[in-house]
């Protein structure tokens, strides 16, 4: 007999059962007993009318009843068996007429046929549950119980190596019959045969996982076979990891297997322990040779590779510490190496980071306090009068290392004065607006009289110091280190003066990684000692390591798109608003950059200033929490584009000019994977609203494009002190180069503020102006993290720059 999904569906509908009952009432039908009938055919004849009605009213014409038959056996249905109601199959003897029926699960002791049955079996036909039927036991040839049938199907599929097909049957058995004898063995055999199949396919990782699951589930099942298989697949996996030079992963896997199984059970463990020890000894020998010829860089790398290969190698850690003592060195993984060294850059992370190694700044930001940043005067101490109208600088050269100890008060006074003179190349408008007079009250004491009270005049004096200040050449380093060797992927910084102690780090090597995940791998493998910048997901992963410490930078970066060309459409605020509405910022931030994880402080922003870690964070004093970030509105974006186009046409007609041509938008981004991922997502979303977009990847170390090479650039800006950074970002000479009158007015009023209340009020006004005029397109705020080995001391917490305390680093 054949079957169909339709017949199964209709067999279970109540309408068929109701019609059977109606037919029984019309013909005075009653429960029929067949125990006195000589043959099975008489039972079918007695119920023929009811069965005919059931078929007529419950199945399509082309379908056939599949719940009973007067001959043969049910057709094989495979996986569709699990779509049927659980049932048993009763097969009748040839002497009684043959045939079979499906019946709801029979309530028999132990779910098996009685050994010495007496009387008859009361049952129902599946789909005709209203009919109680009885058959003599001698007329029943056998009963195929539901669970046995599932077991048989599972075993047959396992034998055919159809493990995907066997799994659903096995899952039902485990769920419904967990205590049934043989189920545990069946599951164990499934796992064993599945592992053999996967091994033949070359999927050794899956093979190992399956075998380990089998060993945990049934430790004694074919124990010798399973352990031999585990040993064999471990051997293959270890060889692949070693060939790929993934020694850390190989050691981690080997240590885990040895802890769980022991070398006695897995012979491959002993083999690979011996192999790793041999390789480690060879590396150690090479490290000692490099140390003897004073090639400490090579010796350090080889010594660490030796320990990585065999952590327990005799004298391994001792050799590492010895080399670190002779020549302390730190390898730092970075996403960008710096081409320009400037510790005051707000748009270039690499330049700001590495610039701190090579150059000192007149006032250096050390952290964030309740009222703006906390700044150190590099040459001594400062004092502010109670009325905040005078700033005094006391120079203390005797306490400074060279060349800073050569500073002279008159020279510094000239530097400060030049910064306030419009004709000077170092002119800074905010300082010029704040200071009224500069004078010397002694050879090492400078007095700065202010035009009005200023809440934080020190933030206006973040001026890089170079060798020219001390009679040297322009650009000469004044920091603890100087740049030495530069290659495509590495930059080497070496100590610029005599070390303070033998333990002081003599060399810092920056290694550019292709991606943040590559950096994480290299740190775990021992190839790096620090990571400068982490994805939030990587920070969470590394924080679980016992050997790695992860810390957050206290100040977030604000990510934005900055116009950088004369593109006629990008120059219009209406069009920039359309661009913003076409970016699903929340989706990009949460899905692409945070990889679905929650990370405090990372959020979409409505303006160019940091929002702080939470609404009550004093770091967010420039951010108006009442201005909500614009949402993702692609239809509104298209409407604004149309409006902008009509406005430009009207303006061109009024001026009798040609209508500007809509050219593709060139979106530039720095050469790091975070910026690349963000800009690729932005480009895709802009194309959905009909824009043509060209992505422009900037050279390594660059964060701003050359003129006429891009229209917008993706910038991660360190707007850490909005009092000063607002002009550095939004002013006519700032990154955005804004000439908007409202923006200019907001900047001037900010610089005229006399106290923190006025500062905050004017910054909130400026936030509102930028939200409307969009001189920059705000995206999101990110909280960045760094990671380093716990054995490296003195790195510090709450540092705003990785190298802030680099002169204090020491290997333990």
From TrEMBL:
Recorded GO MF terms: peptide transmembrane transporter activity
GO biological process, one term: peptide transport
A Pfam family it matches: SBP_bac_5
Annotated Solute-binding protein family domain residues: 492-704
Protein name per the record: Extracellular solute-binding protein
Lineage of the species this protein comes from: Bacteria, Pseudomonadati, Planctomycetota, Planctomycetia, Pirellulales
């Amino acid at each position: 007999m054949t079957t169909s999904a339709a017949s199964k569906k209709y067999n279970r509908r109540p309408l068929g059962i109701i019609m059977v009952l109606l037919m029984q009432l019309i013909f005075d039908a009653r429960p029929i007993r067949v125990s006195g009938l000589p043959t099975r055919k008489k039972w079918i004849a007695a119920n023929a009318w009811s069965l005919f009605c059931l078929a007529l009213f419950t199945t399509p014409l082309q379908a056939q009843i599949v719940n009973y038959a007067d001959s043969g056996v049910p057709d094989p249905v495979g996986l569709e068996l699990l779509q049927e109601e659980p049932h048993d199959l009763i097969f009748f003897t040839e002497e009684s007429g043959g045939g079979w029926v499906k019946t709801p699960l029979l309530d028999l002791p132990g779910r098996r046929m009685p050994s010495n049955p007496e009387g008859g079996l009361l049952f129902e036909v599946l789909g005709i549950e209203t009919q109680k039927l009885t058959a003599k036991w001698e007329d029943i040839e056998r009963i195929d119980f539901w669970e046995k049938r599932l077991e048989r199907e599972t075993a047959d599929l396992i034998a055919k190596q159809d493990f995907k097909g066997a799994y659903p049957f096995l899952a039902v058995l485990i769920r419904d019959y967990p205590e049934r004898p043989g189920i545990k063995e069946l599951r164990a055999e499934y796992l064993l045969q599945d592992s053999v199949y996967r091994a033949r396919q070359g999927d050794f990782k899956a093979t190992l996982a399956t075998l380990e699951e089998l060993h945990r589930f049934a430790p004694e099942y074919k124990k010798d076979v399973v352990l031999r298989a585990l040993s064999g697949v471990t051997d293959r996996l270890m060889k692949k990891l070693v060939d790929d030079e993934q020694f850390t992963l190989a050691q981690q896997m080997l240590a885990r297997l040895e802890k769980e199984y022991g070398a006695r059970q897995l012979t491959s463990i002993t083999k690979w322990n011996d192999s790793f020890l041999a390789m480690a000894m060879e590396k150690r020998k090479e490290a000692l040779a490099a140390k003897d010829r004073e090639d400490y860089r090579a010796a350090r790398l080889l010594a660490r590779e030796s320990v990585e290969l065999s952590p327990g190698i005799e004298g391994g850690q001792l050799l590492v510490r010895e080399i670190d003592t002779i020549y302390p060195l730190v390898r730092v993984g970075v996403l960008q190496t710096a081409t320009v060294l400037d510790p005051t850059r707000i748009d270039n992370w690499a330049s700001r980071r590495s610039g701190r190694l090579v150059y000192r700044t007149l006032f250096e930001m050390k952290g964030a306090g309740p009222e703006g940043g906390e700044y150190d005067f590099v040459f001594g101490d400062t004092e502010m009068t109670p009325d905040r109208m005078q700033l005094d600088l006391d120079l203390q050269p005797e306490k400074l290392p060279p060349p800073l100890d050569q500073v002279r008060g008159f020279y510094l006074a000239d530097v400060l004065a030049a910064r306030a003179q419009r004709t000077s190349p170092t002119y800074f408008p905010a300082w010029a607006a704040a200071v009224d007079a500069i004078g010397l009250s002694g050879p090492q004491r400078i007095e700065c009289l202010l035009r009005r009270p200023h809440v934080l005049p020190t933030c206006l004096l973040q001026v890089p110091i170079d060798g020219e200040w001390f009679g040297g050449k322009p650009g000469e380093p004044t920091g603890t280190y100087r740049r030495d060797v530069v290659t495509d992927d590495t930059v080497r910084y070496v100590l610029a003066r005599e070390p303070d102690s033998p333990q002081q780090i003599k060399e810092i090597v920056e290694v550019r990684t292709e991606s943040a995940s590559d950096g994480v791998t290299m740190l775990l493998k021992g190839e790096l000692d620090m990571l400068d910048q982490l994805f939030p997901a990587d920070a969470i992963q590394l924080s679980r390591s016992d050997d790695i410490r992860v810390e957050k930078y206290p100040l977030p970066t604000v990510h934005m798109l900055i116009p950088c060309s004369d593109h006629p459409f990008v120059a219009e605020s209406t069009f920039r608003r359309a661009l913003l509405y076409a970016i699903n910022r929340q989706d990009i931030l949460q899905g692409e950059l945070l990889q679905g994880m929650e990370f405090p402080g990372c959020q979409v922003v409505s303006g160019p200033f940091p929002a702080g870690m939470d609404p009550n964070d004093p770091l967010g004093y420039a951010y108006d929490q009442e201005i909500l970030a614009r949402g993702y509105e692609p239809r509104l974006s298209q409407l604004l584009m149309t409006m902008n186009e009509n406005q430009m046409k009207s303006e061109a007609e009024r001026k009798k000019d040609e209508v500007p041509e809509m050219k593709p938008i060139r979106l530039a981004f720095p050469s790091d994977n975070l910026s690349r991922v963000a800009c690729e997502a932005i480009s895709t979303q802009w194309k959905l609203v009909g824009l043509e977009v060209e992505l422009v990847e900037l050279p390594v170390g660059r964060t701003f494009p050359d003129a006429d090479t891009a229209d917008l650039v993706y910038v991660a800006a360190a707007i850490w002190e909005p009092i000063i950074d607002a002009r550095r970002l939004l002013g006519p000479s700032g990154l955005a180069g804004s000439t908007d009158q409202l923006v200019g007015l907001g900047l001037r009023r900010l610089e005229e503020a006399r106290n923190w209340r006025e500062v905050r009020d004017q910054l909130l006004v400026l936030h509102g102006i930028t939200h409307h005029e969009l001189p920059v397109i705000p995206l999101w705020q990110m909280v960045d993290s760094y990671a380093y080995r716990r054995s490296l001391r003195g790195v510090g917490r709450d540092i705003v720059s990785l190298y802030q305390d680099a002169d204090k680093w020491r290997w333990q």
